[in-house]
Amino acid sequence: MEDKDKGQGGSGPTVDNKRPARNLTEAEIAPRREEHLRRLAGPAKVNRKV
Fold this sequence. Notes:
The chain has 2 helices and no strands. It is mainly α.
């Protein structure tokens, strides 16, 4: 039961559930990661501080 609390976000008991339904290629994943990093490093982070 403890495994559910290890960064799974309550989505499921196993890490397999965090994997995307369809296998994304690195070319598809990379741009998405960049967008997430930009959002985290952008105004959203500033708003949290304020």
